[in-house]
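If your schedule permits, I should be very grateful for your opinion on a structural question. I have a record of one protein: its chain in single-letter code and its fold written as discrete structure tokens. Would you kindly read the sequence against the tokens and tell me how you understand this chain to fold? Thank you for your consideration; the sequence and its tokens are set out here.


***
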Amino acid sequence: MTTKPLTILTGINRTSEPSSGSAILVGDLYRAMPNTHTTFLGRAPVHRVWKTAFDHLIPLSTTKQPQGPGFDAYVGELTQEVGKLIEQIRPDAIHAQNVGFALSLALSRTAGTIPFLSIAHGPEVIAAERNMAEREAVLEVAGASAAIVTPTSVLADRIDRLTGRRFTDRIVIIPWGIRLADAHVRHEPPAGSGPLSLVHAGRLDDNKSTITAVESLALTNQPHSLTVIGDGPQREHLEQRTIEFGLRDRVHFNPSLPRAELWRRLPNFDAFVFTTKGLEAFGLVLVEAQAHGLPVVFSDLPGVREILGSAGVPFTPGDPCSLALALDEMGRDFHRRKALIKAALHNARRYDISATGCQLRDLTLRFTSYPGVSMPPRDW
């Protein structure tokens, strides 16, 4: 007897493409979820890869409006559009990505009796901690949620505090993952000690603090080299500082790469440098680097330490001197690098996207198939 697939409605209110860690995760996640049929709400244009990531993809037509005077009217119009789609699709469950952003608000207001789960990604938590209107949106979506899914205990606690600990019993931790089978591993580092070939990949903004990596190279005793892969508002500033420090021959900038190309290049480096200084929801790129056999030198943030455990080298967030010392020590100690590679590969095996998909599906089924499980009351 064939079991009927679980039908899920989800979406991200952005261009439908693998343009960020959250988008990449979602694209992998629903492909890895067994016996499900997923409809995704996004924005045009639709990337060719995205057309195969979901069973059905519907571009939203309501014109976007950021938080401000026109935001409430925008959410109202988006809610009408989403409500009509829900009536047509009638999914078994709704997964709202980014607790409190406009699309999750629209989905929560039109879900009715359909089980509604929200999934936190981090940017909405940062926004809500800075802005009362964003916080009220998070409270509304959390109140509508049967479960609030987060990837780490650190993000779970931030959401719990942000919502006044009103929904503690609804918060569920499900670690994110990657397609481990696609990783290409270089098990052995180059023999001997010496300068390292380093890589940093991600959005170039203030929170990612790539400037810490650039400045650290001016302080190291060994002439390590750094390749920065990514785009963002800090790109021009980073390039200028590189020139000012006299590091043009040691720091190289590449634009963002499709994930397949990034993964192909990762094994060519000696170590990965992670410099985020504020909240990091999970940091998929950390697991990607480890899955390719790269030791990780990382900002010692609670959420990052939770993901990496002892399989990395910490430094003080935002402190180039601390990072420089960590890099020089790794460059000198070949045997430690070998041990870190082994630990990295072992740690990465904890984060297979198929496990994430199974856990999220099982959680969803608790609210759709199991008798005696009722939805919590709505709180707005």
